[in-house]
Amino acid sequence: MATPTPGRVQRAPENFLAPADIAEVAAGRRGFLRAALVAASAGVAATAARASQGDPAILNLPEHTRGLGQPVAARAYGLPSKHEESLQRRESPGLTRVGAASVSFAPLQGFFGIITPNGLHFERHHQGWWDIDPTRHRLMINGLVKEARVYTMDDLMRLPSVSRMHFIECGANTGMEWGNVAVPTVQYTHGMLSCCEFTGVPLSVLLDECGFDKKRGKFVLAEGADGSSMTRTIPLDRALDDVIVAWAMNGEMLRPENGYPLRLVVPGIQGVSWVKWLRRIEVGDKPWGSKDEVLHYVDLMPDGLHRQYTSIQECKSVITTPSGGQQLLQKGFHNVSGIAWSGRGKVKRVDVSFDGGKNWQTARLETPVLTKCLARFNIGWEWKGGPAILQSRAMDDTGYVQPKLRQLREVRGARSIYHNNAIQSWKVAESGEVSNVQV
Amino acid sequence: MATPTPGRVQRAPENFLAPADIAEVAAGRRGFLRAALVAASAGVAATAARASQGDPAILNLPEHTRGLGQPVAARAYGLPSKHEESLQRRESPGLTRVGAASVSFAPLQGFFGIITPNGLHFERHHQGWWDIDPTRHRLMINGLVKEARVYTMDDLMRLPSVSRMHFIECGANTGMEWGNVAVPTVQYTHGMLSCCEFTGVPLSVLLDECGFDKKRGKFVLAEGADGSSMTRTIPLDRALDDVIVAWAMNGEMLRPENGYPLRLVVPGIQGVSWVKWLRRIEVGDKPWGSKDEVLHYVDLMPDGLHRQYTSIQECKSVITTPSGGQQLLQKGFHNVSGIAWSGRGKVKRVDVSFDGGKNWQTARLETPVLTKCLARFNIGWEWKGGPAILQSRAMDDTGYVQPKLRQLREVRGARSIYHNNAIQSWKVAESGEVSNVQV
């Protein structure tokens, strides 16, 4: 790994150290700092005293080193710093006619690690979101079962629960890139993606409890309680595998925008199947072919036909820092960071190229690397100041390798909307400006 | 595991199904639901039409199944449901004289999995919290180094970063229980505990860059920028091991209450060493013995002497559901859930007793189980309606077993404040009421 460039010695912390003081410190003479430490420890009283004597060193201290700050529980539920207010989930203007049937994209360029903060989780609604009263919410299990049942939230939350970390990605994520539209930032290219620790009861527990028909049962239908009556078919073998009827995300109850009080978690499968405000699971013997399966979320192929039920989100990755719209301020060492994921299992390896795919280096994967979950990668890069094209290429434990956009288009054409998992390219100009390019 | 009791068949989802309808469903006749589905799918127009004809079934539909909900990005930064507002971090009234030098406890009774939502992370301030401007914040590395340096946030965030999940626990957590005070809820017994995915640069990278004195350097001092000038000594070997200079928690920048824009992450060590608003790291040849090391966070022993530098948080666990102040509503199956952790490594096993420690059963650990991180455990319990005493006992991968309160008191007496990692007991009365007892 390249050696980090030294941070320039600038004004000292909170500018109460003059360059001469810093020289003192550099020379390892601790006396000065002891004094500074004692002065600081003496706290408000001494500070006030010295300030009253017009001591300039003290008058220069920023307020937060002198006064009493905010008390605990000043905010019973905390919020980000006011200096982070520009980091928001954002709707793409004009993407849809009404905001209640639209998308807000997560600001991946400002994320770290693999956990998505609940307040910045992406949104996709078909008829808007509601804050449903959990005491009135019910889940029905019916169809090919011995005994149809209706559960209250209390009923569900008494059952054996599991907690697992999984990514959720909309099938239309990166959809604009199918054509020649290179949207400017990673928030809009890849922001229909989030990752949480979900807690709930395995769907298999509920199906067992209701005595599902092991002979005739082949599929389940999941139905939402909002006005769009979102319905999705899920093969029974998958439903019995790792699907969760979840009430919690990242340690707390689901957010209203994400299906409070109950949603389906279908690991590795496109987000539309993670039915929000879940009110019903029906066991059946054939796919339902509901409107959101037949008319939407199907891949338009070059021959004009639609390929249905492409539901697994294939292996994919993207560099988030640096990414489109950002600016490299200086030559020298930069930590290049991004995320990788696969709907089929674990990310096995991520390679990064700084020259548009001619040469590749293997990045460092942060641990833990979990199945059907985001993985964070990091790699050091010495930017010499010339133009460069940054790419990341992920591999999963099935051996599948993330394709180039050109390779995808050869098979799928350029008119599709869904399931684009191509390698993303970011161009770095000599000015340090980073932009989205298709190579 | 005991078989879950069936959820009673109650009013159907959103009470638009009459008992007769449910019978239809139970009989597996799908026709009815098809009709209901089609009606719902038809959406607002049809609904309005039928409503205008006074169709009672439609008039009974809750608003969220009929109208347009909130648009995406209605809240650029999302918040919990209004139905969850009672889940707050809370200060213990009268615990300290000013709220700026106090504690707010995390509501563990409402948490799931291992991730603590940033908005509910516990707080401990010594002179209150501030929202420091990151463009003006600096970190100085000085002392026994070749070249003392001052870093801006930009300097730091360009360096190689890591992302790791760790718990943070205040050394005084569960402190009230040393005496005979059994505080009522798990929020107040164990709520000075949280767990996040932290991102930052390893301290070892910064010390290497500044050329620390490998021969004379034995300790580092970490100093905070707030008025309390919090300073803590950390042995150099630990500083070079897994200590992180962190700017992010759970995917986003640190919260102001948690040290924005920079804090120290010292895995496995009591929270007071995780210096917030970090402004300086000094390399030295002996411990500093600063006020928060000599006068506070030291264990008062029965002989009246203080045991200093007890910094590792030993293996510990607690049942969070059910816990003090909660109420079991029905006999039958209950999922019993809790958390376990160890400052020395990974949790190896958690046993649970329902009879005050006479008999123990091994609980299920959710994965991943990570080093110096919370682990979530679950176990099924058939409550027959009689009195019971619930306990959890954790073991870590060093072979250490969480002690009984009596065992701890034999060694440490009852006058200490810090480092109580004893087994917690929750009494379940015949009424189903759960309370804190010391056995």
Number of domains of chain A: 2
Strand content of chain A: 25-35%
Quaternary assembly: homodimer
**CATH topology grouping of the largest domain in chain A:** Sulfite Oxidase, Chain A, domain 2
Shape of chain A: globular
Task: Give the termini separation of chain A.
Answer: 27 Å
Radius of gyration of CA atoms of chain A, rounded to a whole number: 26 Å
Task: Profile the largest sheet of chain A.
Answer: 5 strands, mixed
Class by alpha and beta content of chain A = alpha+beta
Count of DSSP H/I helices of chain A: 9
Spatial sequence of strands, sheet with the most strands of chain A: 5-4-13-8-9
Which secondary structure elements does this structure contain, and how are they paired or packed?
2 copies of one chain form a homodimer.
Chain A: H1 19-26, H2 31-52, H3 56-59, E1 90-91, E2 103-105, E3 123-124, E4 139-143, E5 149-151, H4 153-157, E6 162-169, H5 186-190, E7 193-202, H6 203-209, E8 219-224, E9 231-235, H7 236-239, E10 244-249, E11 252-253, E12 263-265, E13 278-284, H8 291-294, E14 299-300, E15 306-307, E16 316-321, E17 332-341, E18 347-353, E19 361-362, E20 364-365, E21 375-383, E22 388-396, H9 405-412, E23 425-428, E24 434-437
Parallel strand pairs in A: 4-13
Antiparallel strand pairs in A: 1-2, 2-3, 4-5, 6-7, 7-10, 8-9, 8-13, 10-11, 10-12, 14-15, 16-17, 17-21, 18-19, 18-22, 20-21, 22-23, 23-24
